[in-house]
Amino acid sequence: VVKSLDYLDTLGHRGKNNPITIEEVVHYLSGHVEEHAIRLVASRRLIWQDK
User: Which residue from 20, 38, 43, 49 could staple onto 12, CB 3.0 to 4.6 Å apart?
Assistant: First the structure.
């Protein structure tokens, strides 16, 4: 949970001297989506075990 969104106005969200590239954004998002997919598959397996 994000406590504050104040950092969003900062270039690259990491500071003016440490910008994030498009490649890094895509890499982060793909990893994040993959994590969700893994959790969804695991949850579905648990649900189907009970049936």
Answer: 20
